């Protein structure tokens, strides 16, 4: 090409640059850049990203907007949220005998301090799912976390058991946001290959929260009374809420309903309204298997820990309250189990691990029927270790099942989970009033066996 003659390639590039705002070629980018693509679940259609007909694949520069939530930030935020939620939700479980003594209550009536909160939480999860779809899941969870922290701060000043139950009910409503939305938020944000692992770490956060709430409250209450125990836990909750609020900021985008439904699921499309999404969450038979795990296993788990203090403070053990509170340290094995669920699933498959966990929990509960204190502790360890992987698998699997109704599925799972905590927990306490520990644990063992059998028959074999 002679001097002074225009380069036709440059002229064409100029015309295209004017019409389509073509950026610099990749060769002109000084260093490597990251191309961010949305995660696509198995059997999903890749979303059409070229509707603007630009005809080019852009290189994302270093000055571009970051991803809505990095993997580490998302994991840390959900971990902190799990700590805050469960520390507040189950703090009073460690002081149920103290509440019964101060307010002259039976075991089943005192257990309402737990059942009222979990029941209110169960009723709130579906409304929170729609709120999350409307304003953004991260924003809804932040609003609720702050409200729950306020309730936790007010709880130590309750003048009567009735006021305490009212505060627990309001707290339960606020705490419903995280269980309703966390797994849906996780599945939408994380890479599909990382969902089970991050979900396990979120469940680990719930175990740390449940452990710290119970142990801290019980240890402080043993020396200074239940009000001081609950107050110290309220400070822990406020700190965890602050961490969650800070780490979840900037992740407020509402989720586009642009995903296709995996094969085998109900016909959910991107144009379905709220009622249709809710029907899809309720009518999928496979997801109902996971709802059954949540209701039966969580109900049994809460029954064990609701009644543990009453049994060990009574004859023939007569353990000090401070020592009984230390038995909640068995929650640590739940943290180990849930954080390692990703590796177990990768090796054996989700269905096998879920079924094995249900039967293992039943075996652990059976050990607690022995009179030996050491066998009781061993049974608690086994049951706790088995419960949390089962919960992590069922929750994340349910969230993946129907992408077009993800919030509704996660909320319905949480509804089953906390309905089990409230209803089975109260029923187990009522059986304990009449039949003692043996009768209550028979209820728990039956629920675990039924849950594992349902998973063996109804869970997908992949």
TrEMBL record:
<feature type="transmembrane region" description="Helical">
    <location>
        <begin position="287"/>
        <end position="308"/>
    </location>
</feature>
<protein>
    <submittedName>
        <fullName>MFS transporter</fullName>
    </submittedName>
</protein>
<feature type="transmembrane region" description="Helical">
    <location>
        <begin position="228"/>
        <end position="247"/>
    </location>
</feature>
<feature type="transmembrane region" description="Helical">
    <location>
        <begin position="376"/>
        <end position="398"/>
    </location>
</feature>
<dbReference type="InterPro" id="IPR036259">
    <property type="entry name" value="MFS_trans_sf"/>
</dbReference>
<feature type="transmembrane region" description="Helical">
    <location>
        <begin position="169"/>
        <end position="188"/>
    </location>
</feature>
<comment type="similarity">
    <text>Belongs to the major facilitator superfamily.</text>
</comment>
<feature type="domain" description="Major facilitator superfamily (MFS) profile">
    <location>
        <begin position="74"/>
        <end position="462"/>
    </location>
</feature>
<keyword id="KW-0472">Membrane</keyword>
<dbReference type="GO" id="GO:0022857">
    <property type="term" value="F:transmembrane transporter activity"/>
</dbReference>
<feature type="transmembrane region" description="Helical">
    <location>
        <begin position="195"/>
        <end position="216"/>
    </location>
</feature>
<feature type="transmembrane region" description="Helical">
    <location>
        <begin position="353"/>
        <end position="370"/>
    </location>
</feature>
<keyword id="KW-1003">Cell membrane</keyword>
<keyword id="KW-0813">Transport</keyword>
<dbReference type="InterPro" id="IPR020846">
    <property type="entry name" value="MFS_dom"/>
</dbReference>
<dbReference type="Pfam" id="PF07690">
    <property type="entry name" value="MFS_1"/>
</dbReference>
<feature type="transmembrane region" description="Helical">
    <location>
        <begin position="112"/>
        <end position="131"/>
    </location>
</feature>
<feature type="transmembrane region" description="Helical">
    <location>
        <begin position="143"/>
        <end position="163"/>
    </location>
</feature>
<dbReference type="InterPro" id="IPR011701">
    <property type="entry name" value="MFS"/>
</dbReference>
<feature type="transmembrane region" description="Helical">
    <location>
        <begin position="437"/>
        <end position="459"/>
    </location>
</feature>
<feature type="transmembrane region" description="Helical">
    <location>
        <begin position="320"/>
        <end position="341"/>
    </location>
</feature>
<keyword id="KW-1133">Transmembrane helix</keyword>
<feature type="transmembrane region" description="Helical">
    <location>
        <begin position="76"/>
        <end position="100"/>
    </location>
</feature>
<dbReference type="GO" id="GO:0005886">
    <property type="term" value="C:plasma membrane"/>
</dbReference>
<feature type="transmembrane region" description="Helical">
    <location>
        <begin position="410"/>
        <end position="431"/>
    </location>
</feature>
<keyword id="KW-0812">Transmembrane</keyword>
């Amino acid at each position: 090409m002679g001097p002074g003659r225009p380069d036709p390639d440059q002229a064409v590039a100029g015309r295209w640059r004017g019409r389509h705002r073509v950026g610099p070629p990749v060769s002109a980018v000084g260093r490597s850049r990251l191309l961010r693509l949305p995660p696509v679940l198995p059997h999903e259609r890749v979303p059409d990203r070229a509707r603007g007909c630009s005809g080019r694949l852009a290189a994302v520069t270093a000055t571009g907007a970051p991803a809505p939530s990095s993997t580490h930030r998302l994991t840390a935020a959900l971990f902190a949220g799990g700590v805050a939620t469960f520390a507040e939700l189950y703090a009073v479980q460690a002081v149920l005998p103290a509440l019964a003594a101060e307010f002259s209550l039976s075991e089943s009536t005192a257990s309402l301090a737990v059942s009222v909160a979990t029941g209110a939480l169960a009723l709130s999860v579906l409304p929170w799912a729609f709120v999350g779809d409307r304003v953004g899941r991260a924003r809804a969870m932040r609003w609720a976390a702050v409200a729950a922290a306020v309730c936790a701060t007010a709880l130590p000043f309750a003048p009567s058991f009735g006021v305490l139950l009212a505060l627990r009910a309001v707290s339960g409503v606020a705490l419903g946001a995280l269980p309703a939305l966390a797994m849906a938020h996780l599945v939408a944000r994380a890479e599909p290959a990382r969902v089970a692992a991050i979900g396990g770490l979120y469940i680990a956060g719930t175990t740390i929260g449940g452990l710290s709430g119970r142990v801290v409250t019980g240890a402080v209450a043993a020396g200074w009374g239940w009000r001081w125990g609950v107050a110290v836990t309220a400070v822990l909750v406020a700190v965890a809420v602050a961490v969650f609020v800070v780490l979840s900021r900037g992740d407020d985008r509402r989720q586009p309903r642009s995903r296709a439904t995996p094969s085998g699921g109900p016909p959910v499309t991107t144009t379905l309204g709220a009622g249709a999404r809710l029907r899809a969450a309720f009518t999928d038979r496979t997801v109902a298997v996971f709802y059954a795990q949540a209701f039966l296993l969580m109900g049994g788990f809460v029954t064990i820990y609701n009644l543990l203090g009453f049994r060990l403070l009574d004859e023939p053990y007569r353990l000090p309250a401070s020592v009984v509170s230390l038995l909640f340290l068995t929650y640590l094995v739940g943290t180990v189990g849930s954080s390692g669920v990703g590796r177990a699933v990768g090796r054996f498959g989700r269905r096998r691990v879920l079924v094995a966990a249900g039967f293992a929990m039943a075996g652990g509960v059976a050990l607690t029927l022995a009179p030996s204190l050491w066998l009781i502790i061993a049974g608690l360890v086994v049951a706790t270790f088995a419960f949390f992987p089962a919960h992590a698998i069922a929750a994340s699997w349910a969230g993946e099942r129907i992408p077009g109704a993800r919030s509704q599925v996660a909320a319905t799972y949480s509804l089953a989970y906390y309905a089990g905590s409230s209803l089975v927990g109260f029923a187990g306490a009522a059986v304990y009033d009449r039949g003692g520990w043996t009768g209550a644990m028979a209820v728990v063992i039956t629920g675990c066996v039924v849950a594992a059998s349902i998973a063996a028959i109804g869970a997908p074999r992949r």
